[in-house]
Specification:
Layout lengths: L1 E6 L7 H12 L3 E5 L8 H4 L7 E5 L6 H10 L4 E2 L2 H8 L1 H10 L8 E3 L15 E5 L9 E3 L2 H6 L1 H4 L5 E5 L6 E8 L2 E8 L11 E2 L4 H14 L4 E8 L2 E9 L9 H14 L24 E2 L12 E3 L6
Parallel strand pairs: 1-2, 1-3, 3-4, 10-15
Antiparallel strand pairs: 5-8, 6-7, 6-8, 9-10, 9-12, 10-11, 12-13, 14-15
Helix pairs in contact: 1-9, 3-4, 4-5
Length: 315
Amino acid sequence: MRLCFLVEEQYRHDGMPVEVIRQLTAWGHRVDVLRPGSSLLRLSETVLTGSHDAWVLKTVSGGPGLTLLEAAAAVGLTTVNDARSIRGVRDKVLAAVIGRSRGLPMPVTYAAARPETLAELPETEFPLVVKPADGSSGRAVRLVPSPERLAELGSELAGEGMLIAQPYVPNSGVDLKVYCVGGELYATERCSPLHPDRPAHERRVPLSAEVAGMAAEVGAVYGLDLYGVDVLLGPDGPVIVDVNDFPSFRLVPDAVERVARAVLELARAGGGGASTAGAAPDVVPPQEPAADIVALPDPEPVPVQLRATAAGEGR
């Protein structure tokens, strides 16, 4: 197959996607890499020729890569994930509306084009978590304890564009990240960027049926095949605070090979993996699931069977 990866400078040396590209090349596939943030692109020779079987995006949220991916999709080319689905999670305002309208457990979300507008929120909504609507990788996420602190942060927030604000969900200071790749779910925990003073060893953790079902539903709601979900275990149960397309897949066992396989499966399926989840690419010998992967019954809204990993013993 011939694939096109859109990779911005920030991820030029990152394992995701650099190692995935190397793996695909080693399997005999041709991978072209475009750097939309630093290269002059002749669109007639990239998008319009339709010479690639699929396009894959690994860029920052506010960069030009998504526009190019959408251009490829607009002329009928296959993208991984679906370009509209990526837009639906990268715009956090849009993601909040879609998620809450479909019943996902997400915090109440406020949007403001200017930071001073957030001063209209009642004091009862504090503490707030404020972040850019197009933010990624934890950029500019702030825990704002009071209206007075919000006023002090005004100049810092002014350059971030559209902002979203959500009431803070009390938690232990540990974030739960759930990854979906190749029809399987994996969970890891790490220290929250809002609580850097609370040490937490990043590690694989067991995935409860409740969180697994919720993470699976995220894929169905947003139309994603490769994705990550940030979950907080709050006093009233798990809460989704972010959804990411093509995340880092940190601590996922054999992540590079699993992601490379998933990319090929989705490319062959025309971008939608529901009908091919679990099928191995022809160029790679079939692999048995890891011993710590167990069957998970499908939530009704999810068209694809997802398997949730149990405790990662020995990992």
